[in-house]
Amino acid sequence: MNSFKKLTAGLVAAGVAGALLTGTVVAPAHAANKKIAFVMGAESDPFFQAMKVGAEAAAKANNVDLIWQGDASEYSPATQIPVVDAVLAQKPDALVLIPTDPTALQPSVAKAKALGIPVINVDTHVGDLTDVLSFITGDNADGGAKAADAMATAIGWKKGGKYEVVVGLTSATATTNVARLDGFSKRILRSYPGIKIVDKAYSQSQPAKANTNVSNWLTKYPKLSGIFAIDGTNAAGAAAALQAKGLTGKVALIGYDAYKANVDLIAKGVFTALIAQDPAAEAKLAIEYAVKYLAKKSKSGIKKNVVIPNVVLTAKTSAADIAKYTYVQK
Asked: pTM for the whole thing?
């Protein structure tokens, strides 16, 4: 899973390897003097900060203005919708949207369409993708399944045993969270009988809330075997809670997202594994697709769905791969 060849093969299958791995643009199409808006969930999240690096690089390479907006810290439809409305009022030429809820943000896509603004979804998506030019994301169901495998290994799963695990999420409806939980749950059901998900809790992309959720679990479930932190902020909060209670290595922690702070905790035994995405590549491709569409007013060469493989980072991962997949922030 940590193989560079496997990642490259997956990207070639998606038709984006050259763009994502070499830093070149998808096509020599430029959209000078165009404005592309990019609205994410919570700007303080290192995942979105890493996305910004990719988005800015693509905007600069293609000579377009980037409007980067999102709520400062909370991941929710209530905070995101006003941001989208404000951005649309600026009349961008295209909108890249990471919807915090597939239903609540559907009207935002309809509003953009009515204004003649093409929309691309990245990371998460709205429920009806008919009016979305492209949806670009990581392989979330696969990531959840790989997290289940890592969890089973970490807790020493054996047939006939009984194990309690919990799951920390940012949102009950964000499509990434839903797919990861689905992949995790199905793999456990199919392959690891005896592991039971006894609780779930939500953090709205705030590590402090995730920390509180985990602290509550550690009191409520004294026999807790493991925690699946389904995204980076939950991983950060869970790691802090385990360390504060002196439970490093005693409760297995499988996390998502290769924030540098979280990656550094793999060597310390706080995380057994981290599932790494490529947020910069997702954002970069979204900008390039928008540029291509604006230049040609054609969907030619634009894939409707792009799924980028995950990489599992553990204490056995090479230093080179750890450095390669750790999220870069400005």
From this structure: 0.86
